[in-house]
Design a protein that fits this description.
The protein is mainly alpha-helical and 132 residues long. The protein is built from 3 helices and 4 strands; from the N terminus they run αββββαα. The strands form 2 sheets. Strands 1-4 form a two-stranded antiparallel sheet. A hairpin with a 2-residue loop joins β2 and β3. α1 runs antiparallel to α3. The protein is elongated, with a radius of gyration of 23 Å. The two termini are 43 Å apart.
């Protein structure tokens, strides 16, 4: 009887490539979930943000955004809040000044939407796992 054994070479490279693709796909799912959860909070923040009585295009509510996904010490996160055009004054309505009473919009949005954001994060991650 003939020897019907064979040798498969390159399996280490194939497995490494497969792992790399899986890691990249997981990272995309994670990033998409973080941005979706952040958008929920940003939408509530936009709704609560005060609008200036002045006729200007620099209203806080028009400049609230969700950042791209960032990483610090292995932890991914997004920043939610006013962009650089108006961030220098975003704390005035939040905490008030000597001439302006506080009209918080950041903290109330966080407390109102944190559970919903966590639920969306979990749902997006589940949806991403189901696609794989």
């Amino acid at each position: 009887m003939a020897d019907r054994s064979f040798r498969l070479e390159g399996t280490d490279q194939i497995l490494a490539a497969l792992r790399q693709r899986t890691e990249r796909a997981a990272a995309r799912v994670e990033s998409k979930a973080l941005r979706a959860a952040g958008e929920v909070m940003a939408a509530d923040m936009r709704q609560r943000a005060p609008k200036s009585a002045r006729d200007t295009n620099l209203h806080l509510k028009d400049h609230i955004q969700v950042s791209n996904v960032r990483r610090k010490e292995g932890t991914k996160y997004v920043l939610i809040g006013p962009d650089k055009k108006v961030s220098w004054r975003a704390h005035f309505p939040e905490f008030g000044t000597s001439r302006q009473p506080a009209t918080p919009y950041i903290a109330p949005a966080y407390h109102a939407k944190k559970r919903e954001a966590l639920q969306i994060l979990a749902d997006e991650l589940r949806k991403g796992l189901a696609q794989r």
